[in-house]
Write a structure and sequence with these properties.
With 192 residues, the protein is α/β, with parallel strands linked by helices. Helix content is 27%, strand content 28%. It has helices at 17-26, 53-63, 66-74, 84-89, 176-191, and strands at 7-11, 30-34, 45-48, 79-82, 99-102, 113-117, 127-131, 136-140, 145-150, 153-159, 162-165. The strands form three sheets. The chain has a seven-stranded mixed beta sheet with strand order 2-1-3-4-11-10-9. It is globular. The structure holds glutamine. Residues 50-53, 83-84, 87, 103-104, 132-133 line the site of glutamine.
Length: 192
Amino acid sequence: MSPGRPLVGVLALQGDFAAHRRMLEGVGADTREVRVVADLAGLDGLVIPGGESTTMTLGIEREGLAEPLRELGREGAPILGSCAGLILLDRDHLGLMDMRAERNAFGRQVRSFEADVDVRGLDGGPMRGVFIRAPWIAEHGPEVEIVGEVDGHAVAARQGSMLAVSFHSEIAGDDRLHRMFVGMCERARLAA
Ligand code: GLN
């Protein structure tokens, strides 16, 4: 750990947590893989990666992580959920965002694709997103701000310190979303 760098956890029960770690470190964060409750101590933010939301939910139950993860979010630590991570933030899972994710909404494996997403708040134009059996946001409450769409479907959203994207941005070589997220973690740490 180095002083001055925010410490960002990456939920590492399953999925592509390693790619997130690399990207976070590249944009100036220290990282820690999170597998058990004790790993959450002292984090300035957390990434919930893509993968398989059912498997991750089982891991969260097994480790008793659901309530501690909710607590982290309620305390104001920024949380970025990508793909399966977006699903885990919704009403039917951790409930940290007032929205309902529709799983595999674009279709299954055959409907994996790349698209440019204009994410509100991100400088430098649309970013490349990789959609792999991706969800979309089918419904949301007034506190959720939709910040990106593809073909008229909501694929990026914010609610307070939560940021959710239905695509993978950690593998397309564009680190702007992670940069923005690490900035949120830095501000949250200074405010704490
Ligand atoms: N389809 C997966 C799920 O529902 C999510 C896919 C992904 O994270 N790339 O869990």
